[in-house]
Design brief:
With 342 residues, this protein is mainly α. The protein is built from 16 helices and no strands.
């Protein structure tokens, strides 16, 4: 609890920290100065591609005026913190809380990028909540409302909707077949790279993908197939072993499958930068899948060795995120708080 209170507090008070913060703030001020009506935000507009986020601007500006942005950031941060805290407490074994928290803090698409991509970070948390509702067969109306919000805040969420129902599949019965299928998909990319490249290029010619492709074409995506990728494949093997094993708990198979799928589509980020953003919706399940899958390894020496490799890789990736050569370096170089402007 204390860990999430502290990390959420930093999200609440941060100001002009992260690559996209200044842009989000400028958009808010534009809404304040333009006196948009609610209906105008949903009209076709080249500058407003995801009106749901601008509706939040409009709502908080209407109530709090020029300070509404800071209130909005605070409330969004609290919502995200509550969702992740409850999900970890509900599904992660208590002795592995530390690993789930480590993943939340060091997996760059989770806590670190929340300071920057506030819009998608909110959608990621809401989709995680919707997925929890879906697998538990509860709060249907709430889930529908949240899905509508997610779509209008960040349309990339549309890609994850089919996976919300993956828990309805008989995963415990076909664990081996599913694992083999995932391996085949990975081999297809590795050995038929040129063909998959052409297929994906054709898909990206669809107008919807063209729009988002242009937005994220300069996202700074660089995937190398060296030692780091080998470590990812080792993690992939651990996840598959969980799916194949007959000793695993069936209640976690869907989380592990979604996490494994993120590794399958990871190489495609070099072809279509948009896939980087889509993959975030799958990587969020690392906070559950990794502790559960590694806990399933019976040999303690093997488990600790593989876990050490995973932690070393995450710390290394985390350091690259803040390195001077990173596209995020300038945006994350110095932390600023709202106390400097209030």
């Amino acid at each position: 609890m204390l860990g999430f209170v502290l990390t959420t507090f930093l999200l609440i008070i941060h100001f002009n920290y992260g690559n996209d913060y200044a842009t989000y703030y400028e958009w808010f001020l534009e809404v304040v100065d333009s006196n948009y009506t609610l209906s105008e935000l949903f009209e076709p507009n080249a500058d407003i591609k995801d009106p749901g986020w601008f509706v939040l601007y409009w709502f908080f500006a209407l109530i709090f005026g020029g300070d509404g942005f800071f209130v909005m950031v605070a409330i969004v941060s609290i919502i995200e913190g509550i969702v992740y805290y409850k999900i970890i407490c509900r599904y992660v074994p208590e002795k592995w809380y530390w690993l789930a928290m480590f993943i939340y803090l060091f997996q760059t698409c989770l806590y670190p990028l929340t300071f920057s991509m506030m819009r998608q970070a909110l959608v990621m948390a809401l989709l995680l909540l919707v997925y929890d509702n879906t697998r538990e067969r509860k709060h249907i109306i709430q889930s529908i409302v949240l899905l509508i919000i997610c779509f209008f805040v960040h349309k990339s969420s549309l890609f994850f909707i089919p996976f919300l129902f993956i828990n309805y599949l008989p995963l415990n019965k076909y664990g081996k077949n599913i694992s083999i299928t995932l391996i085949v998909f990975l081999l297809v990319f590795l050995f038929l790279n040129r063909i998959t490249h052409r297929v994906l290029d054709y898909i990206m010619m669809i107008p919807f993908f063209v729009t988002y492709g242009s937005i994220y074409s300069d996202a700074g995506v660089t995937i190398t197939f060296g030692f780091g990728y080998i470590l990812r494949l080792i993690m992939f093997g651990v996840l598959l072993s969980y799916l194949i094993s007959e000793d695993t708990k069936d209640e976690y198979r869907d989380f592990v499958l979604l996490a494994a799928f993120s590794i399958i589509i990871l190489p495609f980020e070099t072809i279509i930068p948009l896939i980087t953003r889509i993959n975030y919706y799958f990587q969020v399940f690392y906070i559950i899948a990794i502790p559960v899958a590694y806990n399933n390894i019976k040999n303690i020496h093997v488990r600790n060795g593989l876990l050490a490799l995973f932690i070393i890789y995450e710390i290394y990736s985390y350091s690259l995120f803040y390195a001077p050569t990173s596209v995020f370096y300038e945006g994350y170089r110095n932390f600023h708080s709202i106390f400097s402007v209030i």
